Amino acid sequence: MGGGIAELQKKKPEELEASDRDRMKEIAVKLASARKFVEQNTAHPSVQVYKDVVISLSRELAKAEGQSSGSRSGSDAGSDSGEAPQQAPDHLNLDVGPDERRHYREDLKKMGTWAGEAEAESLADHLRVRAQVYVIVAGVFHRVNQVGANHTPVGELALVHLGNHYEVVDGVADGMEVGRQRRWLKTSKTGDCLFESMLLIRHNGKPLDEDKKQRAILKLRQRTADNLSDDAIDETIHEMLVYGDTAGTGEHTSKLVEERRGDAASKREADKEKRSRDDENERRVARVDAKFLQDRLDTLQTLEGLSAFGFDKAIAAYLKERGQDPKSKQTLAELRKLNDLFREADFAFKAQKKRAAYEYQPFEKEEEESWTGELDRPEDAEEQLALERKARERTLNRRDIKKTASPNNANQTLIVLRGEEGEFVLDKLGQLVPRYSRRNISQANLDELNGKHGEEKGMYPSRMSPVEDADISQVASGTGGNKIRKESDEMHHVQGHKPSDYLSVTAQNEDAVNPKGKKFDAAATVEVDLSYIDPANLSALYTSQGMRYFLLDGMLAGDKGETIDLAIREQSKVPPDKSHEKDERKAGGKKKKDKKDKDKAKPSSNQLALDHDQLSAKEWQALLDVIRTKEVLIEDMIPHDAVRKL
């Protein structure tokens, strides 16, 4: 390869023909293969020779293409192998600045510090000599490079690189067997061998006396260190960082390489541990996903003609793609197909059930052994889904309700509760939520409802929104900047952070207000029919059970009841009626505000935090907000038909 590159270098880059470019690509592929071998066999004692040969040939190939010796070869970068000239380990910091270069020069000026090809080129220019560089492979000399190409050779003296040591040979040609050389000039093994070798070549093999040699080497070191270009130093340091070879280097450079590679190794290990955790989480989610799909399919078992939908095949196809790459386009495509099937089956099931209502049972008081509502969210996702399913089933088994299937969602149930007006629906915990709720909507919601996008009309959680900039991060009034310990997704949403997986509605029959009693800015107010929403996608936060399960989950150990009671009592305080003040202002009168009276009856998260430090002021405010607004979260797109503008 060295000979081939030398032939290519005889032409100027602009004179290279297509066949020359093809030859360069062939050489680049071979160099890439050699680099891979070096990287996989760094512990082998003779690999240093091969490493330096590969580096040298890569530089010479770059020169033949008209690039600097420190540039990546275009043939190499574009080769079929796809290999980079020098593949740095992940997280390895390759930045080289003025301090690193200065330290490298300081190290090089010290006797005993090893020098390499960059220094050899600088020495050849300074001593005005040309020298071939050989290595020995299987008892044969192989020419791998030359230094001082612009100068005259001194006889047939050449450098021979023995892996970690330079010496001088005379009368050697490429491919010659070892032993046929005219002379072999040994050098001392003190780390100064390259400088001593170049002096021998300059003086045509004549050795210098020891004192004169030492003074000459020291002078050459200082001159070489000062004359080395920044690019040459950067490239040399890069090689040390990539390969981790610090043998013979100076104190500063050795420390730099060890620290950088050590830091990179630590980060790679952290990445490995994270990937392991992510893989385990993904396997858990996959198991939950499969069970969820099967559970959802089980709800359709009484649907006539269910087998014709092909659910088994569709579920298997989705799970297969998901197992290979959960985020791939093919996985999402299979999921969309599966969702379309479920949607069609739900409509068919709804039509089938329209003709038959649930059996009416007389209203009776709920039995004492029924669910008390004190549930804590399990950490295991499968257990969580099972608990929520059981909670909904217990509600549906109550004898003080009348229940009918929702005409708008096969999984939802319309409920009439004894002693209460209106209809209710179920949330994921089986809590009864008023069927009709309100939402102050944004301009993005209006655009979603009006179909100013390519997706289905409806209102979307900000993370799902097809409207541009709908997911720009914002923080709602009263909870900005809150960092709640082990914060749940629901609590994160309550704080107003976007993008979010939820939409908020209020269960009260009036617009929600902020902590100061003012209405939120909105493009419009709409009424939402929750009978369209699957109970697994509804979460009533404002109840004691809702706060316990969705908001305080993971934050407080033990009983959370006292904390919830404190928040409910605090929010029950009502600000004083100021209607008389408004009348006086209209009449032109003035009334001096008494701050003490003003704040006396207002709910205060700050006071709660002072008196009860299990939560911060902002954490208390989050609880006060959901109680005040009777907040319900919807973890899904709200269909267009479920929305009516007020």
Automatic annotation (TrEMBL):
Origin superkingdom: Bacteria
Region (Disordered): 1-23, 61-99, 252-284, 570-613
Compositionally biased spans, kind Low complexity: 66-82
Basic and acidic residues bias (residue ranges): 8-23, 570-587
Protein name per its UniProtKB record: Uncharacterized protein
Lineage: Bacteria, Bacillati, Bacillota, Bacilli, Bacillales
